[in-house]
Amino acid sequence: MTFLDNLALLVGRILFAALLIPSGVRKLMDLSATAAYMTRMGVPAPDVMALIAGGAEVLLPLLLILGVVPRITAILTGGFILVATLTAHRFWEFTDPAAAMMQQIQFLKNLALMGGSMFYFVAGAGAYALGARK
Length: 134
What we know:
The protein is globular. It is mainly alpha-helical. Helices cover 78% and strands 0% of the residues. The two termini are 12 Å apart.
């Protein structure tokens, strides 16, 4: 890989993580609100799942930034986003057109993120990573 390829992989990992970390921190800073939202979404064991979701949204992006275990990180990140998408962004259930449109945007954004995790699975972390192949 060239210098630019490796730089693009590093910047891509950072940008991907930048979207997830703030959401995870918000969840962890207000677990009761996160659990209440999950209760409304019909998530089982919402108190436990709020902690797991917040932790995943902080830990997985850190693994992305560091570039360690890229294939495992890609699978876990894509899987987490899939579950979150199907749980929290069911736009087809909304009767208010504005709310439905906002949820559809979130749904489609998450599909793109799942695509990004697939690219990460294939491309790996690049040379500028703790898990770089020598």
